[in-house]
Amino acid sequence: MGAEPLAGTELARTIREEVAATCAALAETGGRPRLAVVVATDDDASAWYVRSISRAAASVGIDCEIRDLGAAASADRIHEELRALSAAPDVHAVILQTPLPDGVDVARASEAIDPAKDVDGANPVSLGRLTVGLPAFAPATAEAVVTLLDAFGIGLAGRHVVVVGRSPVVGRPLAQLLLARDATVTVCHSRTTELAGHTRAADVVVAAVGRAGLLTSEHVVPGTVVVDVGTNPTDDGGLVGDVEASTVGPVVTALSPVPGGVGPVTTALLLRNVGRAAGERE
Amino acid sequence: MGAEPLAGTELARTIREEVAATCAALAETGGRPRLAVVVATDDDASAWYVRSISRAAASVGIDCEIRDLGAAASADRIHEELRALSAAPDVHAVILQTPLPDGVDVARASEAIDPAKDVDGANPVSLGRLTVGLPAFAPATAEAVVTLLDAFGIGLAGRHVVVVGRSPVVGRPLAQLLLARDATVTVCHSRTTELAGHTRAADVVVAAVGRAGLLTSEHVVPGTVVVDVGTNPTDDGGLVGDVEASTVGPVVTALSPVPGGVGPVTTALLLRNVGRAAGERE
């Protein structure tokens, strides 16, 4: 037996096709959507991710501009660049790539991104609006979890979802999206005692900490649906999630793979948000 | 036997004394702190609450100005008033009283309150900043719950807190405050199935729905600490919480009374926030 794989590749392809159609229509009337990515790191994984975003953007008809400020950029320099891009009429969407230089606070910096261009929901304003039910872009990773569950027909209303991880970019916004979908939501984290007691009581478990081996077979029961948001590099250049798939897979009902689960859906939704931001500007 | 009463009256008095000292110092250097309350309802309970805020403000040396726009005020009129008060140099703090006229969205209207004067944490910006750990005023009711628990030495780090109610003014911001204090947090609501299963598993239960009789003895076990945020008017002009105190009290370890629990602490914290907002403007 084994868990149903909650694969995201097909779903991501479908979303990208829709985005490509949107972008083609926009290109005919006003011009190609344009995404700016601000980078201030020489981190290899970050560079790889930015290139993959750029390629994915090109494939759907989105221009992607990388603004590399260097790993020594000051907070002021980063804020200034984000404000300039927010004001630029030919830029429809702005992402601030992490990590940032020491001493630069990502939340404060993100306040310089115009919420109308904040396609990865990084500005606290976006998160606040999301929380109170006003229109806002959600962080793409958080939205990808809900979109993936929807695609596989896994209901959320009245279900108990345990989110492991309380980061401002995944765990906390995801909790808001799940509450908006009428799930009962528990947020666990590094200070949670008896994590397994919480996750074993859940209908759906979302692992979003960023630590390989976080969830093992002792954390789940037959019937659990598990979504793995983790992307942890391995020594041999591969990628593993937060879930120990070899022991969890045989127990649970469904499990999203890493790679090929939440990741491709996240990228597709980010591009969809760029298309929407460009559409709003028409 | 019976539960320890988590009374808020003494704590509120202590906070008000601190605020009075702050306001006296401010009055000597720059002038009395000034709070503006925007009202657009003829609801009796609301009028009673505004009068009580006004009296409490006066008692600590805060001037309170009521701007009654009438129960027929338009959204535009309310936004305009909030923007004007946000811009007024002699006003340090702004509250928008609810309920609002039909068709006026409280979250949208609250976006017109300058976050620096948003002493009841109503602007989604305040909530977003709170969520990502940036400085912001928290909604006073949510902060009162944490302050009350602190005052009675009830630890939160690593404890499991179940919040019943997901409103943008209490449940959701409270969940953020509790996560920031390292609690494991579950948010339950009207669509939660088997509410008692969740609340019986908690170390601390916070009832914040606004329905008398929401929690009864079947929802708690010996050892549970219960904070009652509800304020429901009774037919005889009294006030009861969301917790059926007569059946819950004999079972649990501690229970906050209504009235005299969270309520007075909320008012005191609101005034403290006015003092802080005025202090920041010096």
UniProtKB/TrEMBL annotation, chains A, B:
One BP annotation, GO: methionine biosynthetic process
A single GO cellular-component term from the record reads: cytosol
The record, for InterPro entries, names:
Aminoacid_DH-like_N_sf, NAD(P)-bd_dom_sf, THF_DH/CycHdrlase, THF_DH/CycHdrlase_cat_dom, THF_DH/CycHdrlase_NAD-bd_dom
Recorded catalytic activity of this chain's protein: (6R)-5,10-methenyltetrahydrofolate + H2O = (6R)-10-formyltetrahydrofolate + H(+); (6R)-5,10-methylene-5,6,7,8-tetrahydrofolate + NADP(+) = (6R)-5,10-methenyltetrahydrofolate + NADPH
A Pfam family matched by this chain, by name?
Answer: THF_DHG_CYH_C
Tetrahydrofolate dehydrogenase/cyclohydrolase catalytic domain residues are 6-120
The pathway is:
One-carbon metabolism; tetrahydrofolate interconversion
Query: According to the UniProt entry, what is the EC number of this protein?
Result: 1.5.1.5, 3.5.4.9
Q: How does it assemble?
A: Homodimer.
Name the protein family.
Answer: Belongs to the tetrahydrofolate dehydrogenase/cyclohydrolase family.
Protein name per its UniProtKB record: Bifunctional protein FolD
Naturally occurring in which organism (per UniProt): Pseudonocardia endophytica
